[in-house]
Amino acid sequence: MTYVYVKDSEGFVVKKQKSQVQADETIISAAEYKKLSGEEYYEKTFTRGGKRVGAGRKQKYAEPLKFQMRVSKQEKEFLAFARAHNFDYARAMK
Question: Alpha carbon of 18 to those of 12, 15, 28, 33, 64: distances in Å?
Fold first, then answer.
């Protein structure tokens, strides 16, 4: 199954199998297809994701991840104390 890019008599472009090309359609190159279909414009404008604005996964290299602790105030104080004094939990449990 070989796929080709086709332009019909009205100017619409589509990708279809070579065996399904009709008499009134002409085979065009991939570069011409991108230009006529608008894919070239989307690649230049949006650079990532799909054809919609803001589509795709967002880049977060500049923003550090936020660390959240869901503990009580007393537990938080104990964790701070344990870190400051190099508390070894495994040794204490023995």
Answer: 17, 9, 12, 15, 50
Residue type, 81: F
Please state, in angstroms and rounded to a whole number, the distance separating the CA atoms of residues 48 and 51. Answer: 9
Rounded distance, CA 5 to CA 36, Å?
11
Q: How far apart are CA 10 and CA 5, in angstroms?
A: 15
* Angle between helix 39-46 and helix 30-37 axes, rounded to 10 deg: 70
Number of H helices, E strands in the chain: 4, 3
Owner of token pair 């996964």:
57
Question: Against a cut of 0.70, is the pTM above it?
Answer: no
pLDDT for the residue 9? 87
